[in-house]
Amino acid sequence: MNIIRNLYIHGRFFIYVAVIAITFLVSFWFPILYSIAWLLVVILIVFFTIDIYVLFNVNKGIEARRILTKKFSNSDENPIPITIKNNYQFRIEANIIDELPFQFQKRDLEEKAFINPQGVWEFEYTVRPVERGEYYFGKLNVYISTFFRIVSRRYKFQENEMVAVYPSYIQMKKYEFLAMNNRLTEFGLKKIRRIGHTLEFEQIKNYITGDDVRTINWKATAKRSQLMVNQYQDEKSQPIYS
Questions:
Q1: Does the pTM exceed 0.90?
Q2: Which CATH superfamily is domain 62-166 in?
Q3: Does the pLDDT of residue 66 top 50, yes or no?
Q4: Which DSSP letter does residue 136 get?
C-alpha cells in the first residue's frame, strides 16, 4: 500500500507509450513492424518492473532537509537552504516541490537536479513576507527517478513547520551597525547636541537632514522601511491661576 501511495508515472513513460502506439499504427502498412511493436511492449513492461524495484528496494533512498530560521524579517528577502543527499547506488533525477505558506500567494517552489551516487545537492531560494504573523510551510516533496524515467518515487519531509514573521529586524540591524561605525552620515544623518532643554514627546515623523540621530525610532523605522524619528517639543510651564 505504501508503494501505491508514493508511486507516480514519469512524463517520459507516455512518450514510450506513444512510440509503441505509432509503431502499431505503421505496422498496418509494414507488417514486419507488428512483431517489433509487441517486443517494445514487453521491453517496456520489463523496465517498468525494474524501475519500481530499484526505487522501492531501498528503505531510505534519499535524505532531504529544509533549513528554516526561527523568524523571518518582514519586507526583506529571507533565504531558505535545502539539502538533498542521494543514498542510492546510481545517479538519480530529483524533482523538488516545496509547499509554501498561503500568505505568499504563489505556487509551490519547484526545482530539478541530477545527483550522483552518495552525492549531496544544495540550493537556496528566498521568500519575502509582506505582513507579520505565523507562516506554515507544507511538505517538502522530492520525486526520484532512475535513468529510465518510467516511474517516480515520492519522498515527503518536514510537514507543517511554522516560522514567525517579525518587523524588519534586518534593516534595524543594518542601521544599528552603521550607527556603531559612525557611518550614518552617509544617509544624511548627523549628530546635534542640545544642552539645557527639557523635552516632551510630540509625534513620530519621517527623518529629515538635521534631525538628532539619537531620536531615531528603530521600531517604526523597521516597520516603515525608512528612517523615522521621535519629535519632541520644549516643555513649557503652564500658568496657574488661583
A1: no
A2: Immunoglobulins (2.60.40.10)
A3: yes
A4: E
Query: Phi, psi at residue 168, to the nearest 5°?
Result: -65, 80
Closest C-alpha among 95, 98, 106 to residue 139: 98
Q: How far apart are CA 145 and CA 155, in angstroms?
A: 11
Rg of the chain over CA atoms, in angstroms?
A: 31
Give 156's Cβ-side CA count (13 Å radius).
10
With 0-12 / 13-18 / 19 or more C-beta atoms within 10 angstroms meaning exposed / middle / buried, residue 181 is exposed
pLDDT, averaged across the chain = 84
Helix axes 32-56, 11-26, angle to 10 degrees: 160
Domain ranges for the chain? 2-56, 62-166, 169-234
Give the pLDDT confidence of 139-187 residue by residue, as tens digits: 999 999 999 999 999 999 988 899 998 887 666 665 555 554 455 555 5
pLDDT, one tens digit per residue, over 185-221 is: 555 555 554 444 556 667 888 888 777 778 888 888 8
